[in-house]
Amino acid sequence: MASAKTVTEVGFQPPPPTTSKQLIVSFPAEHTVQLTLNRPEAMNAMSPTLQDDLERTLAWFDAEPSLWYVTASSSLNSDTRKNLLLFEDYYTAF
């Protein structure tokens, strides 16, 4: 399976907006943009910068006729993963 293409590899005109390091934009398949929230230190909580990045990127997506799908994901560090697993274990026990 091919890896996701980066913004510079795809060559959209106009290109997607530049984003902060809090949002990673990639293109894993034809007609698809993937948005990865990248604030693992804050468990990917929304910030004003991330909100601005999302608003500008989604407005660009809406105007880009060759893109049909948006997928969203988040980056997590090992401590966050462990905490989420503990949270899941706790609430599925009931």
From TrEMBL:
InterPro entries attached to this UniProt entry: ClpP/crotonase-like_dom_sf
Origin: domain of life: Eukaryota
Gene3D superfamilies: 3.30.300.220
Stated name of the protein: ClpP/crotonase
Species name: Sanghuangporus baumii (Phellinus baumii)
